[in-house]
Task: structure prediction
Amino acid sequence: SLLTPSYPNVTVFRVIFEVISAFGGCGLSVGHSPSSPNLAFAFTVPSKIILIFSMCMGRHRGLLDSMKDQEEIEYSAQTLIQSWRYLAMYERQQQKKRVTKRKQISTVPDNFSSLTSYISTRF
Result:
């Protein structure tokens, strides 16, 4: 009948141990029989899928916490990139001003020699 277990050695505590072991990722199993060292041998296909799912969830258990922080990290990275862009634009403007100032300084007026002689003789 449906109520009689096909494997009487499979108890609730053994199943809980298997699930916790799978979640922890240690690979420890209580075993089913001397011929089968793994209790998952007695599980049905949906039970094995649930066990595999719990193994994956245990392996990536910190993923959800890191995804919560990801929004802050992305915002910080975007802010950092934008500030670097503004800094580069500011430096480019300053460089253009310096080049313009050098061009103005490098153009020597025609009466430069008379100005220098006046300045040098005055002192």
Remarks:
- The radius of gyration is 39 Å.
- Residues 12-59 form one domain.
- The longest helix spans residues 63-106.
- The chain has a mean pLDDT of 78.
